[in-house]
Amino acid sequence: MLQGQIMKALSGFYYVLSEDTLYQCRARGLFRKNKQTPLVGDQVIFEADNTTDGYIIELLPRENDLIRPPIANVDQALIAVSAKEPDFSTVLLDRFLVLVEANRIKPVILVTKMDLVADSALADVQLSTDWYRKMGYDVHFLSKEWSANLEQIQTVLQGKTSVIAGQSGVGKSSFLNYLNPDLAIKTAEISNSLGRGKHTTRHVELVEVAGGLVADTPGFSSLEFDQLELTSLPECFPDFLEYSDNCKFRSCTHIKEPKCAVKQALDKNEIASFRYAHYLQFYQEIQLRKPRY
Q1: Ranges for the CP-type G domain (predicted)?
Q2: Strand partners, 66
Q3: Would you say 5 is a known binding-site residue?
Q4: In terms of CATH architecture, what is 230-287?
Q5: Biggest distance spanned by C-alpha atoms of the chain
Q6: Helix, strand, coil: what percent of the chain each, to 5?
Q7: 56 near 14, Cβ under 8 Å?
Q8: What is the pLDDT of residues 106-123, one digit of tens each?
Q9: Does 260 carry a binding-site annotation?
Q10: Is 169 within any annotated ligand binding site?
Q11: CATH superfamily of domain region 2-61
């Protein structure tokens, strides 16, 4: 018996790293019977007579797992949002943050393409990101000249398993290629008609980058809250949690209830108005969601 970590899943095969050797494995039928699916990032017990004919026989307990992208045991999510092309969007960033917070994964915000922002728009980007810093989020600004923040980002990645997520075309693949040129991940031009990039990644794979493991993850641009319950949404806004203990009602939704400490903080400009507007938007979206059967 051997123990290792799944580094890549492709076409029914799982590529498991154990003591610097990569084994191509299949999953035993018992996983399907038990409605279990091995994920990239899983620690597993497997058996293999050689490097091409192994079988995964046990999944070890997970710290966490994501459905889209399908990956397990993530330490942090690097959320890449561009300052320009496509334009900086707090609502898009907040959607990513809610999904990451719901999975109890630490978010790190990367604002890419800062060199493309005109001086007139720079203040708006800085003002918005100042709010995120106040909430306790790590925020890093990156330009196409990746070396400007290289040392700082390497510190963020070292010793961690990270998902890098974000809207297509924000520079995720370019960022990874810079940190590890051996990857040669394909990058795509921005579509002028859609204002977004084409998907360039086809599978989930953990790669060694800057002393850590990073997954370039297709599918994270699907941002529906189909797994999130209404009661959990307020917990995904850390700027609300600071005040919610002082609400009159324990199950306060921070919408219509009297003596709501979150709304009082909003009135005092202690919570960003755009964050509260996004909260209402997400709340209504989950409320109107079709029932799952």
Answers
A1: 63-223
A2: 71
A3: no
A4: Orthogonal Bundle (1.10)
A5: 67
A6: 30, 25, 40
A7: yes
A8: 999 988 888 888 776 787
A9: yes
A10: yes
A11: Nucleic acid-binding proteins (2.40.50.140)
115 annotated as ligand-binding: yes
Of 124, 121, 79, whose CA–CA distance to 100 is shortest? 79
**Residue 203 among known ligand-binding residues:** no
Domain residue spans of the chain: 2-61, 71-216, 230-287
pLDDT tens track for 206-224: 988 888 998 865 545 457 7
Strand stretches in the chain, DSSP E: 2-10, 13-18, 21-27, 43-48, 54-59, 65-66, 71-72, 76-82, 106-112, 138-141, 161-166, 190-191, 196-197, 206-209, 212-216
Whether residue 111 is annotated as binding a ligand: the answer is: no
Residue 25 marked in a binding site: no
Residue 232, marked binder: no
| Contact yes or no for 84/170 (Cβ under 8 A) | no
Which helix (H) or strand (E) element contains residue 269? Answer: none
What number does CATH give the domain 71-216? 3.40.50.300
| Residue with tokens 């909260």, as numbered in its chain | 279
